Amino acid sequence: MSTTKKFLYVNRKAPYGTIYALESLEVVLIGAAFEQDVSLAFIDDGVYELTKGQDTKDIGMKNFSPTYSALGDFDVSKIYIEKESLEARGLTLDDLLDLKYEDEDDDYAEKDSIHVVSRDELADIMDEQDVVLSF
Amino acid sequence: MKYSILVNEGPYTHQASDTAYQFTKAALEKGHEIFRVFFYHDGVNNATRLAVPPQDDRNITQRWSELGAQHNLDMVVCIAAAQRRGLLDEDEAKRQGKDANNIAPGFRISGLGQLIEAGIQADRLVLFGD
After folding, report:
1. What is the ipTM of this complex?
2. Is residue A73 included in any domain, yes or no?
3. What is the percent of chain A where pLDDT is above 70?
4. FRET partner for B88 with CA separation of 20 to 30 A, picked from B14, B38, B48, B82?
């Protein structure tokens, strides 16, 4: 299976109201083993998936947000957040997890995985993909 | 064209499962190839052979089984999603120490890698969900 395709995972839902965010992350982690060109997008309430300081103690659910910090180790380093969705919810980059990856083409320098993009830019990113999985 | 189908919602609750079936059937009738149908999230519930819908309604699981048999479809149920929701085949039931299994004919349980492969191998991956 030598074909490399561009995969985009679009995350649209808040982290704990439904199972979509958790099960989307499970696909991303399994998919990472296939050495495809992977990107993640977070739009609408999906931007809440990346907020820092998540505490699920009182709702009896597992806080899976620390797993996002491991994505860099799985070579998942292109994470796009839609600017309009962030702004509509009164969020800024400071409210989000600090996701990093080591760039092997740049002497393993640590770089930011998160890129805030406009709705128009995200449309172009989607247009470039071979496979779009929307959760 | 070679399609893969992803079914992300459960039967009867949500239109997605019906639309996925209609699309798959129509694509086959037009001579297209279906590489795989993958069931994820509540979509795994499409594969239970224990559902008993009213007789004057469609039987969604049986409909998939029949279409699968007719066209030799590869219908894969995600194991992680299935385990959460109580969908087991004979092997899984034994392995997990459960006293029953409920997978309908024509479906098989496997991993999420099968979904990624479905995306890689098909010309189009078409997702039916919310």
Report:
1. 0.93
2. yes
3. 99
4. B14
